[in-house]
């Protein structure tokens, strides 16, 4: 547990400096723990996986609300609990979500990813054609940006910008789908 | 979409900007709203006639100190309520102390006033205009500040909206003080307080919808 805290702290400080690999590792560490947290509170595995993704997107889009002077786990726990309450509210279920110690988030982990309902193809159609093909090549076919960029008429820098914009659009569509 | 793909995509933008951009953004938009409110006060209602004199300046500064303190408490509260997992107790305590000291000062002032003059002291000459004016001016500050607050992540949106309202109301009351020449402490605490509370309530009502994320 303490090792885990240390590990998280070091990943955060590297993420704060703009280290993408550390940030990806941090999110990858959180995902199974979020999955266990939601899985124990929801009967439907697809709902749980949707919430894991919603929470990861919220962690990302709301990362400017993280104050490095404060502990990281309570921040993530606050986001996860809010997403769970929000989920029940949308379903019209009146359910009390107790405020637990943030440590429950780290207590268990579940690496068995359920299948999320939010369908990537459905989201991708909202992107402009050229951006969509780039996202498909880089994110789904596993090409590098350097390989994929010229195929769609992008320079390497422009491809990075286009991917960045595409991810913003996708995050926004996931968010608006929930309304 | 697979969760691991999502993570890989999100990791393209690793930068954590830290707490300052949120604070700067809220300070900027509420400050801009406050300037508009002050301009409206001066142009539409006119400055209080004694603002050029020492006594007028002292009374303005005294009232502004209290209303600005309310705004600061609102800003501090919002900074905590807008961050998941952050403790809101210290700013809530500061706000409670501020209101308590206002209440004590009011009681002392009214106790020292002869019984026959108490009602006049409390009502001044503009008791009913004051809260309405503060509410109206407050909306000019509340709306841009609520918009700026959408970058935050309040786990209790209505409460955070109330904090935005406290910030906007405190600034609005300060702007209205440029016009209002009431000098009684009891007037300030009760009627300015009511105006700020009204902006707070509107903020809470709007916040419960606008600040969801």
Principal-axis shape of chain B equals elongated
CATH architecture of the largest domain in chain A: Orthogonal Bundle
* CATH topology tier name of the largest domain in chain A: Rna Polymerase Sigma Factor, Chain: A
The count of β-strands of chain B is 0
- What distance separates the N and C termini of chain B? 21 Å
Q: Which regions of chain A are unreliable across 5 or more consecutive residues at pLDDT < 50?
A: none
Number of domains of chain A: 2
Tally of individual helices of chain B: 8
Sheet having the most strands of chain B: none
CATH class of the largest domain in chain A: Mainly Alpha
Instruction: Classify the beta-strand content of chain A into a percent band.
Output: under 5%
Q: Work out the helicity level of chain A.
A: 55-70%
Strand proportion of chain B, as a percent range, falls in under 5%
Mean pLDDT of chain B: 93
Portion of residues within helices of chain B: over 70%
Q: What structural class should be given to the helix and strand makeup of chain B?
A: mainly alpha
- Write down the domain tally of chain B: 1
Interface with most residues: A-B, 55 and 32 residues
What structural class results from the helix and strand content of chain A? mainly alpha
Report on this structure:
The complex is a heterodimer of chains A (179) and B (213). With 179 residues, chain A is an all-alpha fold. Chain A folds into two domains: 2-107, Rna Polymerase Sigma Factor, Chain: A; 120-177, Winged helix-like DNA-binding domain superfamily/Winged helix DNA-binding domain (Arc Repressor Mutant, subunit A, Orthogonal Bundle). In chain A, 69% of the residues lie in helices and 0% in strands. Chain A starts with a helix and ends with a helix. With 213 residues, chain B is mainly α. Chain B has one domain. Chain B has helices at 3-10, 20-45, 54-81, 89-112, 118-123, 129-149, 157-176, 185-210. The chains are: A mainly alpha (179), B mainly alpha (213). Chain A binds chain B through residues 12, 15-16, 18-24, 27-28, 31, 49, 52-53, 56-58, 60, 62-71, 73-79, 81-82, 86, 102, 113, 116, 118-120, 123, 139-140, 160, 163-164, 167, 170, 175, and chain B through 1-19, 21-22, 82-86, 151-153, 155, 212-213.
């Amino acid at each position: 547990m303490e090792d885990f805290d240390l590990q998280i702290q070091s990943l955060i400080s590297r993420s704060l400096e703009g280290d993408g690999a550390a940030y990806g590792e941090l999110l990858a560490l959180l995902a199974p723990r979020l999955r266990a947290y939601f899985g124990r509170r929801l009967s439907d595995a697809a709902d749980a996986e949707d919430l894991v993704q919603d929470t990861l997107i919220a962690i990302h889009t709301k990362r400017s609300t993280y104050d490095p002077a404060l502990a990281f786990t309570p921040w993530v726990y606050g986001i996860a609990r809010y997403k769970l309450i929000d989920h029940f509210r949308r379903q019209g279920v009146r359910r009390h979500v107790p405020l637990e110690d943030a440590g429950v988030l780290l207590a268990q982990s579940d690496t068995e990813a359920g299948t999320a309902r939010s369908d990537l193809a459905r989201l991708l159609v909202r992107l402009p054609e050229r951006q969509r093909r780039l996202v498909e090549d880089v994110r789904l076919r596993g090409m590098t940006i350097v390989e994929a960029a010229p195929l769609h008429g992008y320079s390497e820098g422009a491809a990075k910008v286009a991917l960045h914009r595409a991810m913003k659009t996708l995050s926004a569509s996931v968010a608006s789908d929930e309304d | 979409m697979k969760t691991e793909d999502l993570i890989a995509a999100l990791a393209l933008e690793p930068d954590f900007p830290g707490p300052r951009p949120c604070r700067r953004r809220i300070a900027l938009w509420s400050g801009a709203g406050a300037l508009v409110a002050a301009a409206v006060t001066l142009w539409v209602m006119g400055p209080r006639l004694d603002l050029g004199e020492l006594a007028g300046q002292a009374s303005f500064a005294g009232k502004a100190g209290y209303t600005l303190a309310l705004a600061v408490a609102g800003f501090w509260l919002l900074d905590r309520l807008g961050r998941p997992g952050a403790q809101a107790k210290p700013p809530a305590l500061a706000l409670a102390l501020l209101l308590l000291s206002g209440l004590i000062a009011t009681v002392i002032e009214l106790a020292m006033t002869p019984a026959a003059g108490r009602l006049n002291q409390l009502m001044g000459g503009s008791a009913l205009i004051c809260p309405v004016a503060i509410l109206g001016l407050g909306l000019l500050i509340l709306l841009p500040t609520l918009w700026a607050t959408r970058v935050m992540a309040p786990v209790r949106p209505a409460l955070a909206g109330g904090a935005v309202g406290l910030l906007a109301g405190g600034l609005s009351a300060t702007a209205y003080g440029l016009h209002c020449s009431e000098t009684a402490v009891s007037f300030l605490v009760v009627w300015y307080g009511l105006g700020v509370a009204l902006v707070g309530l509107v903020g809470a009502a709007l916040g419960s919808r606008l600040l969801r994320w």
